[in-house]
Fold DUF4391 domain-containing protein.
Amino acid sequence: MTATSAMLPIVEALGLPPEARVDARVPKKLLVEQGAPTAADKRAIQDGIDELQWLAACKPATIGVPAFEDDVREYLEIAVVACALRAGAKAVRLIELIHRAIPYPVILLTSDQEGLTVSAAHKRRSQNEAERMVIDGVVAATGLHPDRPAPAEQRFLESLALAKQPRRDLSALYEGWLACIEALKASRLTGTYAATDDVEVIEQRRRALDAAAQITRQITGLRGKAKREKQLSRRVDLNVQIQRLEADLASYKKNL
């Protein structure tokens, strides 16, 4: 199976013109040279990636959307990339490395035994090195099965089309796609997919997602401690903390 075959429904959902398609294999050696700061990262790439393909180049000449550039950001092109991961791959780290290695903002599609992940990461100029671009943070929605999509996933696919995104410039286009991914992440908590171009709603949802992710990590850590705790009184205290955090999590879901 190629890196693109499992992702085909998402690729088609983007609705890109033929002029934007690249469909070129990217050698892992290139990723190792440009995106692996440590020996461990080099091993993760060599052992974890089965295939990497550059699917499309979204730039003014191919999709008719103007470039964007200011003192902080530069959006001359949006790359659409597919990556097939091997069993046991360090998926979270590899996704981050791919976003860092490619000089353009990326819509990244990765596949593994858990399904598909779609991710995006805004880029900005480094404060220390003006010529170097760094990512602001990866936004990823995991566990997609576009061949048999759940209702929220189907609505996500329907919302991705280039024709439905902001076309003021490539920065606005990328933000539109990133907001779709965030809406899918929110649907994992609410059960409902709600695409929007309302900036205030998007920012509120973004803050709520960040807070919910932090609380979820805290709950996971406390559950691990409670499972290992031998003293009953201490275990009760940990479960009380978990219940309080779960109540906080429920309140944040209202803002999604």
Q: What stands out?
A: Residues 199-228 form the longest helix (30 residues). The chain has a mean pLDDT of 90. The first strand starts at residue 21 and ends at 25. Residues 52 and 83 are 4 Å apart (CA to CA).
